[in-house]
Specification:
Rossmann fold; 26% helix; two-stranded antiparallel sheet; 3-stranded parallel beta sheet; 151 residues
């Protein structure tokens, strides 16, 4: 685990990687989660069913109900990578209606798309904090109002 700092926002990130052996331990970190950041290898189409199953498991966790989701479609710099739109279809993101979500094409190697994605995360964390301070709750927007992003 490491601290994550952005303008006016400090949080925790968990470096989970994709190792199946440690996935059962993820739930130890779900309390007080402000956002889900889910990174997909856009160049590995063969694992899309596994990725979809893991995302579905995460979204089904009670402690993560309503937590905003960003999917980073990584490796957009590689020829033949699935687009953010193709990954959105493969993961059935349009079916998500209980939280705000977006998909952002990116290249971690080149740094493209990362700032835009993290700005989305920070804006949603701030909105949740402001609503909580005002005594209200943040209501998720319909998926059609979220989603998008890409290279």
């Amino acid at each position: 685990m490491a601290a994550l700092t952005a303008p006016s926002c400090v949080g925790t990130r968990i470096l989970n990687a994709g190792q199946a052996s440690i996935r059962p331990y993820w739930r130890n970190y779900y309390d007080n989660t402000d956002a889900l950041i889910f990174v997909v290898d856009s160049f590995d189409e063969t694992r899309m069913d596994e990725v979809k199953a893991e995302l579905s498991m995460l979204l089904g966790e009670d402690k993560l109900t309503g937590v905003p989701l960003i999917v980073f479609a990584n490796k957009q710099d590689q020829a033949g990578a699935l687009t953010a739109g193709e990954i959105s279809v493969g993961l059935e993101l349009e079916e998500i209606s209980d939280r705000d979500w977006t998909i952002q094409g990116c290249s971690a190697l080149e740094g493209e798309g990362l700032v835009e994605g993290m700005e989305w995360v920070v804006s949603h964390i701030k909105a949740k904090a402001e609503a909580k301070a005002a005594g209200g709750a943040v209501k998720p927007k319909p998926a059609s109002a979220a989603g998008g992003g890409g290279l």
